[in-house]
């Protein structure tokens, strides 16, 4: 019996929005920087995960909580 490996798909989540993986060659930090052009608040967000789900690996972007000034 041979062992088979399969790569899990990555998914990124921001709030209730699921963001597709732009490329498996990018690190989660690079993905955050790419999506920060569309969602500027992601620039200062933290990355949590990956969490293994049935659909693949899920990373979540969490906004920094705090006050300005």
Describe the protein in words:
By secondary structure, the protein is mostly beta strands. The chain contains 1 helix and 4 strands; from the N terminus they run E-E-H-E-E. It has a 4-stranded mixed β-sheet with strand order 2-1-4-3, with helices on one face. Strand 3 and strand 4 (56-62) form a beta hairpin. It is elongated and about 60 Å long. It starts with 9 loop residues before the first strand and ends in a 7-residue tail after the last strand. The model has no long low-confidence stretch (mean pLDDT 89).
Q: How many individual β-strands?
A: 4
Q: What's the pLDDT, averaged over the residues?
A: 89
Which structural class matches the secondary elements? mainly beta
For the biggest β-sheet, the strand order reads: 2-1-4-3
pLDDT < 50 stretches: none
Shape: elongated
Strand content: 25-35%
In whole angstroms, the N-to-C terminal distance is 62 Å
N to C succession of SSEs: EEHEE
Radius of gyration: 14 Å
Helix content: 10-25%
Instruction: State the helix count.
Output: 1
Largest sheet: 4 strands, mixed
Feature tags:
single chain; 69 residues; mainly beta; four-stranded mixed β-sheet; 1 helix
Which helices and strands occur, and which strands form pairs?
Layout: E1 10-14, E2 17-19, H1 28-35, E3 46-53, E4 56-62
Parallel strand pairs: 1-4
Antiparallel strand pairs: 1-2, 3-4
Q: Care to give the gist of this entry?
A:
With 69 residues, the chain is mainly beta.
């Amino acid at each position: 019996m041979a062992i088979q490996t399969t790569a899990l798909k990555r998914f990124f989540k921001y709030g209730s929005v699921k963001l597709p993986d732009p490329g498996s060659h990018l690190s989660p930090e690079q993905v955050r920087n790419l999506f920060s052009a569309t969602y500027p608040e992601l620039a200062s967000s933290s990355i949590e995960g990956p969490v293994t789900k049935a659909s693949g690996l899920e990373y979540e972007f969490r906004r920094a909580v705090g006050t300005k000034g």
